[in-house]
Amino acid sequence: MRAFAHDVFIYPLPAGHRFPLGKYRMVREAAESVPGVDVRGTDAATWDDLRRTHTEDWVERVRAGRLERREELGLGLPWSPELVERARRATGATILAARAALEDGVAANLGGGTHHAFADAGRGFCVFNDVVTALRVLRAERRVDRAIVVDVDVHQGDGTHALLAGDRRAFTLSVNGFRNYPFRRVPGDLDVDLPDGTTDDRYLAALEQALPRALRPSRPALAFVLAGADPFEGDRLGRLALTKAGLKARDALIRDTLVAAGVPICVTLAGGYAEDIRDTVEINLNTLGVFTRVSTHVAAERI
What we know:
Elements: E1 2-4, H1 22-31, E2 38-40, H2 47-51, H3 56-64, H4 69-75, H5 81-104, E3 106-109, H6 130-140, E4 147-151, H7 158-164, E5 170-177, E6 190-194, H8 200-218, E7 222-226, H9 244-260, E8 265-268, H10 277-302
Parallel strand pairs: 1-2, 1-3, 3-8, 4-5, 4-7, 5-6, 7-8
Helix pairs in contact: 1-10, 5-6, 8-9, 9-10
């Protein structure tokens, strides 16, 4: 499985900031020794790529560092040239992973899943929306038309929902914690809202019911999976109570359902804010291990 990394493009954060920037290097270094994972670098999304999703005003003000104070507060990250480059690289990694998924059956971005970015604003640690940008780039290249977004990050992808609202060729399935960020939610095509403290069995039962309900009307040629680590019981921002085994079962259920439907899979790792960063890294590596088996399956079919 090709997995695209962008952790070398770091940016400054204030001391004690809650965004786990160091996680990405840890994931990449560990992923390099995971059997079946081919870690590669990434290109930056071009400014024209980003304009397919975002307004000219937002792109240019991000580029020039002309964000208002309230916009930086909503973003949750201080502007810097390094932040802009990192955001472009994170989006470029999803574009490359989506192309690779169409060729190989599965591929991954060792980050990404920036689903709180709207057309004209960045929010919740998300400058640009990588998944919507990747979908629109692939459509422009005539590589894909219909797609599904399977968002199992604990936070609802409000930006993605807003960007894809009215797009009859894209379907959004979200399985999220209900009493959590964002507090002004944007309806998707199918939202499964879970109460605080939801454990493995209830979560997996809800997901098992939702996946076929989403696949039947969407008829996708590509799936974007936002496999957030933040439903974990030890996550600082999650409020759900899944175990690591439950999260592996979540990923396997998504993998098996999409493989059975013949849908290529582009995985992004999305959020994760465990008290111990090593827990988030372990969950991310488990996700990669689960989806790597798709590559083995596709290779076996081709043989």
